[in-house]
Write a structure and sequence with these properties.
The chain is mainly α and 325 residues long. It is 54% helix and 6% strand. It contains 15 helices and four strands. It has helices at 4-13, 18-36, 47-59, 65-77, 81-91, 96-108, 110-117, 133-146, 149-156, 169-176, 181-201, 213-220, 244-249, 253-260, 282-296, and strands at residues 229-231, 234-238, 302-306, 316-320. Strand 1 (229-231) and strand 2 (234-238) form a beta hairpin. The radius of gyration is 21 Å and the shape is globular.
């Protein structure tokens, strides 16, 4: 049986109405019934089981956002971190392709937009992650065939996840109160490490990953992670691995590359014979530079230096600061 009281408490804390709570519980109970028909307890469902259920929802036109969020919230409420993280990965690409299309239209016009996307079937909401890279490979091949390199890099390197500017304003204030950019970067790194330590003490998932002492030590040892290091007119940033705990325990470079990659549109391809082209990571570059665009009040240029899609063990970028005082 589902853990109804824990779930109701989570939903009530979100100020859900009684009608919303009953709908959410009904949707989880339906998943439970589906899994029980296959002799699988809902708490024991693995990624393959969840993928199969998502395909079932898609086939029946029930893959709406609130439905998937309700399933994610259930696993969050019972402390099933692995399956909660699974759903955050499924939902993590929401709106990304629409924003890339918008940037492509604004940069190149309707004709180029149609030339890239016409006849290209986009993954629907809830598509299992291992089925998405095929789309990304086709999209990248079209972008590379139809647009100059600097153009498609610029198109990809936007705020495609639609991070809210307001969420960065506290960091902007911290920057403005710092003696220099370098001093700000040191302070930013210290604040981020403290945030990880708090999540560890409270046994809470930090974005899509579990925090351990080893994860904290790993981040502490590299200021480029969750902050940056300025060298001359370049600001160097290294992304924290998607699953740092598994990254640190990986036995092979392929495993490390897989656990380093955040992108639901690409990461599964690292385990296959055809990997998504590395320049897709300019989308990740846009995510990485956006906080600094808010802090510095201007659009920034960024260069991809390393990518797990290119065979590297990390995602690393350089932001151009040559016009910054």
């Amino acid at each position: 049986m589902i853990q109804r009281k824990k779930y109701e408490k989570t939903l009530a804390n979100r100020n859900s109405t009684q009608e919303q709570i009953e709908l959410a519980i009904h949707q989880v109970e339906r998943m439970e019934d589906y899994l029980l028909d296959k002799d699988i307890e809902i708490e024991n469902a693995c990624e393959e089981d969840l993928n199969e259920y998502l395909r079932h929802l898609i086939a029946n036109g029930e893959n709406d956002l609130e439905h998937l969020l309700n399933l994610a919230r259930y696993y969050f409420s019972i402390g099933h971190q692995e399956n909660y993280i699974y759903f955050t990965a499924i939902l993590g690409g929401l709106g990304v392709i629409d924003n890339i299309k918008k940037r492509l239209f604004e940069r190149c016009g309707q004709e180029e937009l149609e030339g890239v996307f016409d006849g290209l079937t986009e993954p629907v909401l809830g598509t299992p992650i291992d089925e998405i890279p095929d789309f990304t490979i086709k999209l990248m091949k079209r972008l590379q065939a139809k647009l100059p390199e600097e153009v498609y890099q610029e198109v990809l390197a936007g705020n495609n996840h639609q991070l809210p500017r307001e969420a960065m304003l506290a960091e902007k204030e911290a920057y403005e109160m710092s003696e220099s950019l370098d001093a700000y970067l040191v302070g930013r790194h210290q604040r981020k490490v403290a945030e990880l330590e708090k999540h560890y003490r409270e046994n809470r998932v930090w974005f899509e990953q579990r925090i351990t002492p080893a994860v904290i030590d790993f981040v502490k040892g590299n200021q480029e992670i969750l902050s940056g290091v300025r060298k001359g007119n370049k600001l160097y940033i290294t992304k924290i691995p998607y699953d740092t705990e598994k990254y640190l325990n990986a036995q092979t470079d392929v495993e490390k590359r897989y656990h380093a990659c955040h992108c639901s549109f690409a990461r599964k391809s690292i385990l296959t014979d055809e990997v998504v082209p590395g320049e897709w990571c300019y989308c990740s570059a846009g995510f990485a530079k956006f906080p600094f665009e808010v802090i510095l009040d201007r659009e920034l240029k960024i260069e991809l230096l390393e990518s797990p899609l290119l065979g590297d063990l990390s995602c690393r970028f350089a932001i151009d600061l040559k016009n910054e005082k």
